[in-house]
Amino acid sequence: RALPAGALMGAGDAAAQQLVERRGLRGHEGARTARMAAIGACFVGPVLGTWYRLLDRLVPGATKAAALKKMLLDQGGFAPCFLGCFLGVAGAANGLSLQETCSKLRQDYVDALLTNYCV
């Protein structure tokens, strides 16, 4: 689970740089893409893989009721905690100080969580 998550996050960053930010190949920040891939492989993949295995044990079954319970636990309990940790890890990986990371977390957390709920 770690390597696919790293590959997906690296590809997502490359797509963001090329399709959204329109940096072009010369302006592409390879180190940024590598950091995102590393975060995916070392943090996101292992944490989410563990969480979803635990969630399947906490709420067994494949009924609509089980799916609803899993979604409520995931989005109501896990997502807010995970998002805060992810933003902290990303800040540290991007060389921000603890104070800068905390400031960025205060600035971005609510918008990021609301966007997560919209998606």
Automatic annotation (TrEMBL):
GO terms for cellular component: membrane; mitochondrion. It is found in: Membrane. The chain crosses the membrane at residues 36-55, 75-96. Keywords: Membrane, Transmembrane, Transmembrane helix. Its main location: membrane. Belongs to the peroxisomal membrane protein PXMP2/4 family. One of its GO terms (biological process) is regulation of mitochondrial DNA metabolic process. It comes from Nothoprocta ornata. This is Mitochondrial inner membrane protein Mpv17. It comes from the Eukaryota. It is a multi-pass membrane protein. One of its GO terms (molecular function) is channel activity.
